[in-house]
Design goal:
alpha+beta; Beta-Lactamase; 5-stranded antiparallel β-sheet; 25 helices; 26% strand; disordered C terminus
Length: 786
């Protein structure tokens, strides 16, 4: 080899060293990044220069040694450079190879297969053997890329693929190569290249891809809008939820800022918040309002966080938008519901505490959940409506009993309350219970209603109930029951009517007495039994008294269903409401027909002559007293006649008492026929009769009546087969002419009668004439005597 001068040798070394360094760095960049970085090349050039300087220095030292040794060949320098390059290759761990395309043989250092993770004794001397070691999924692309590099001007062969490792697994490698020589036809006959182990980088890249895919899938799976921006506030990406929310596509949003999407005022607010976050780093949460793509305003919460780049500087921010419109509405609705619930509870409490009934709710363990004032005061003796909460009936019962251990009847409620609770829970339906016992030593009767307390899921969570103090009602009902028994078994008829006089009920005696059944009587007027024996004013007077005093009692003539008239003693009483209005009227009556007949018989016997049916002496005296009072009030005249039959004793003794009785009866009839309807004819004993002539204003009327009697009684009397004839002597006394009192009038009339008898019988005499011993009707007596 031709020896070179010192300076030329230095230049060759520098250039060669720099180029070698660039090649090694480029191969490393390609192995690690699949690209050649300009920055790396710059660094490698500077490094090459430094290395070259070192090499030149070494060369200078070498020349000195050569100068010392007198001889140094170029071949030795090249060998030394080759050794340095081998060091660089060792550092890069790239397997350099040469391929004979004609024979298909590979030429490389098998010892360096370990760099690729392969065993050193791997059979890979031919292209076919090498291809067999490639992963089945990568072979097709491997061949395609290799074949594409063969034509003149074709691309360099470069491909990442998996090759079988020493442990049987697969490792990623990268092979780069190109055609080295071609034949006369331009076909490649040899190729050179290198294969680099990129398994760690590739696995990292794949992991990064997996991570990116996971993160992208995660972002898309998140239902809320997600976005991220760079440090300048430009959108770098987002998920589909953000696109849907904003109503814009990726192409419309990537690279844009809030100033391109919102009003200037709102954009300034958002941008200021972003700058604050990136300045302070960390996270940021705030509420705001955002319009969606349709223009609807949403209440949202922004959740943002700043992220850092590889240099530790803020690279931007990532954020999410949580739509809380529904939550806000729900909160408002909840607040409104709570307000209404509170108002409803207040109303419920107000109503519950102002009703007289006891109201409560208990859990399944029979502990109170809610009570009103009534149950606290009437049953539990609790201080307020809060004290019973969480306690049961036994607590209050035992507390009351402990205060009066000597009184077993002081408080007997508690067990009965719990028994009906258990029964209600067991049945699972509403129920009514009559509970009675003692509270504070006083008897208490309750009308209790209970029902299961059921929640929204249909589960029974307790018992609700109400109770009413019916102690007074029970006592009243007992009285009514006894009264009903009495009336049902009473001999008096009862009819119960409403305020309008319509019958609402009767008792059995009513049916027995009137013949009308309950169905026939109920709904009828209380006057449907009336007969025609009373005038209308009788009923008007009766109801006037009832309306005024609420009570009436008296005798009334009613009519049975069969038409029979009967006398009844009727008592009517009125039952009033608390406001004073009429509630019911009770009518009780008994049949007094027989009694009335008996009374009438007794009265008749006491006041009338049985033989003549004329008033007797007793009745006569009563009538005389009444007529005298009338005459006194009216200032009128009254005449009293005394009549005595002449020769009656002769007939009675001759024909017998029976014939005498017939004569008396006929005489009575004739005397009565001569008087007026208002006059009184009486038999006062034997053959003596009296006549009261009321309202006589002059004596002409008296004379006429007296003469009619004389004429009538002198007519023959037919007594069976006998015919007899008698006459009558009549004395007349006048009021007030002859007497002022009853006794005086009687005495004077009697005297006048005797004066008539002394005058010859069959005549009448006035008392005034009798006193003067001038018989009245003396001419008539004379005529009769003749």
């Amino acid at each position: 080899m031709t020896r070179l001068t010192g300076w030329r040798l230095n230049g060759v070394i520098i250039v060669f060293t720099v180029l070698l360094t660039d090649v090694v760095v480029a191969l490393v960049d390609w192995a690690l990044l699949s690209r050649v970085s300009l920055d790396s090349m710059k660094v490698s050039t500077v490094s090459g220069l430094i290395i070259a300087t070192l090499v030149v220095s070494a060369a200078g030292a070498l020349r000195a040694r050569i100068a010392q040794r007198q001889q140094l060949t170029l071949e030795q320098v090249v060998e030394r450079a080759q050794a340095n390059m081998n060091v660089a290759v060792e550092a890069a761990q790239m397997l350099f190879w040469e391929l004979d395309l004609v024979s298909g043989k590979f030429h490389f250092d098998h010892g360096r297969l370990a760099w690729l993770g392969m065993a050193s004794d791997t059979q890979a001397s031919t292209m076919a053997q090498w291809l067999a070691l490639v992963h089945p999924d990568d072979r097709g692309v491997f061949i395609q890329r290799f074949e594409a590099a063969k034509p003149v001007g074709g691309p360099e062969f470069s491909f990442d693929y998996r090759i079988q490792q020493a442990d049987g697994g697969w490792g990623w490698v990268q092979t780069q190569g190109r055609a080295k020589a071609r034949n006369a036809q331009g076909e490649p006959i040899a190729a050179v290249g290198g294969t680099l182990n990129i398994n760690q980088r590739k696995l990292a890249e794949l992991a990064l891809v997996d991570q990116n895919q996971f993160q992208n899938a995660l972002m898309e799976a998140i239902p809320i809008p997600i976005f991220y921006k760079d440090a300048q506030g430009r959108y770098l990406g987002f998920n589909q939820a953000y696109e849907a929310f904003m109503g814009r596509s990726r192409t419309e949003l990537i690279g844009k800022s809030v100033f391109d999407m919102a009003s200037p005022e709102l954009a300034e607010v958002y941008h200021a918040a972003d700058l604050q976050l990136m300045a302070q780093r960390g996270t940021q949460v705030y509420e705001s309002q955002v319009k969606d793509g349709a223009g609807a305003v949403h209440e949202v919460v922004f959740h943002k966080a700043a992220f850092l780049d590889s240099s530790g500087q803020v690279g931007g921010l990532v954020g999410g938008i949580l739509d809380i419109t529904a939550r806000k509405q729900a909160q408002n609705q909840l607040q409104e519901s709570e307000r209404r619930t509170h108002a409803l509870y207040t109303l419920l409490r107000c109503v519950a505490d102002n009703v007289p009934d006891m109201i409560w709710a208990k859990d399944v363990d029979k502990r109170y959940l809610f009570v009103n004032k009534a149950i606290c005061e009437q049953l539990l003796q609790a201080e307020n409506t809060n004290e019973p909460l969480g306690k049961d009936d036994l607590f209050f019962a035992q507390r009351a009993r402990s205060q009066h251990p000597d009184d077993a009847q002081w408080h007997t409620f508690g067990e009965s309350c719990q028994d009906s609770d258990a029964l209600t829970l067991q049945r699972g339906c509403t129920g009514q219970f009559d509970e009675a016992g003692h509270v504070q030593g006083h008897f208490l009767a309750l009308d209790v209603h209970k029902a299961p307390l059921i929640d929204d899921t249909g589960c029974t969570i307790g018992v609700v109930g109400s109770a009413r103090d019916v102690t007074a009602e029970h006592a009243a009902q007992e009285k009514l029951r006894i009264a009903a028994l009495v009336l049902a078994n009473s001999s008096e008829a009862l009819m119960l009517s409403d305020a309008h006089g319509q019958i609402v009920d009767i008792n059995p005696a009513f049916t027995q007495m009137t013949g009308y059944t309950r169905d026939e009587a109920v709904g009828q007027s209380t006057e449907f039994l009336r007969s025609d024996k009373h005038e209308a004013h009788f009923y008007q007077s009766k109801w006037t008294q009832i309306e005024a005093a609420g009570r009436w009692q008296g005798e009334v003539w009613n009519q049975r269903k069969n038409g029979e008239i009967f006398a009844a003693w009727l008592t009517i009483n009125t039952l009033y409401q608390e406001d004073g209005s009429v509630h019911r009227r009770v009518g009780l009556f008994s049949d007094i027909t027989d009694k009335k007949r008996a009374d009438e018989l007794i009265w008749t016997q006491a006041n009338f002559d049985q033989l003549t049916s004329l008033p007797n002496r007793r009745m006569f005296q009563d009538r005389l007293v009444q007529d005298l009072k009338k005459a006194q009030r009216a200032g009128s005249r009254l005449a009293l006649m005394f009549l005595d039959l002449d020769r009656f004793k002769q007939v009675n003794d001759t024909l017998g008492h029976a014939m005498g009785d017939l004569l008396l009866a006929e005489a009575a009839r004739r005397i009565a026929a001569c008087t007026r309807e208002a006059d009184t004819v009486a038999r006062i004993g034997g053959d003596e009769f009296t006549v009261i002539l009321a309202e006589m204003f002059d004596t002409s009327g008296i004379d006429r009546i007296a003469n009619d009697m004389l004429d009538s009684l002198t007519q023959p009397f037919v007594l069976g087969t006998e015919q007899v004839q008698v006459s009558v002597s009549i004395g007349v006394a006048l009021y007030p002419d002859d007497a002022q009192t009853q006794d005086e009038l009687l005495n004077n009339a009697d005297k006048a009668m005797y004066a008539a008898k002394e005058a010859g019988r069959n005549c009448f005499s006035y008392f005034a004439y009798a006193v003067q011993r001038v018989p009245a009707g003396a001419g008539r007596v004379n005529e009769s005597a003749a």
